[in-house]
Amino acid sequence: MLTVSIHGIQLHAYIGLYPEEKVTGNNFEVDVDVTVPSRGEKLPFVDYAIVHKIVSDTFLTPGDLIETYVELVHKTVKERFPIAEKVKVTVRKLQPPLGGDVRYAQVCYEG
């Protein structure tokens, strides 16, 4: 197996349940791991620039739940790279507005 990863993609997006999040937005960090079979002498190619664009494009649309975005990124990466045996997507909302000192809230989707 070969895993291609792109971690720490930084984004600002208008995603959240609270009205102020729709106005000010939030900062997010995204990690994506794509695992493909590595049979034979020639290793498969997973272009992490394409994975980065998938993440960036997905976060352009405002919404409510980071669960929706983690699932959309996962689905799109699997469609773009059908050879992938496993895709893991992690989305972190940095300093979520919870009235306290919280580093991040995180959702992970793997399959």
General description of the model:
The chain has helices spanning 19-24, 48-58, 66-80; strands at 2-13, 26-36, 86-94, 104-110. A 4-stranded antiparallel beta sheet has the order 1-2-3-4, with helices on one face. The protein is built from 3 helices and 4 strands, in the order E-H-E-H-H-E-E. Helix 2 packs antiparallel against helix 3. The mean pLDDT is 94. The protein is α+β, with helices and mostly antiparallel strands and 111 residues long. The longest helix is centred in the middle third of the chain and has 15 residues, at 66-80. It is 29% helix and 35% strand. The radius of gyration is 15 Å and the shape is elongated.
Q: Any descriptors?
A:
3 helices; 111 residues; 4-stranded antiparallel beta sheet; alpha+beta; single chain
What is the radius of gyration? Answer: 15 Å
How many H/I helices? 3
Helix content: 25-40%
User: What does the largest sheet look like?
Assistant: 4 strands, antiparallel
User: Which strand-content bin applies to the residues?
Assistant: 35-45%
Q: Which structural class do you get from the secondary structure elements?
A: alpha+beta
Question: N-to-C terminal Cα separation, in Å?
Answer: 15 Å
This entry's quaternary arrangement is single chain
Provide a quick synopsis of the model.
Helix 2 (48-58) packs antiparallel against helix 3 (66-80). Helices cover 29% and strands 35% of the residues. The protein has helices at 19-24, 48-58, 66-80, and strands spanning 2-13, 26-36, 86-94, 104-110.
Detail the topology: elements first, then pairings.
Elements: E1 2-13, H1 19-24, E2 26-36, H2 48-58, H3 66-80, E3 86-94, E4 104-110
Antiparallel strand pairs: 1-2, 2-3, 3-4
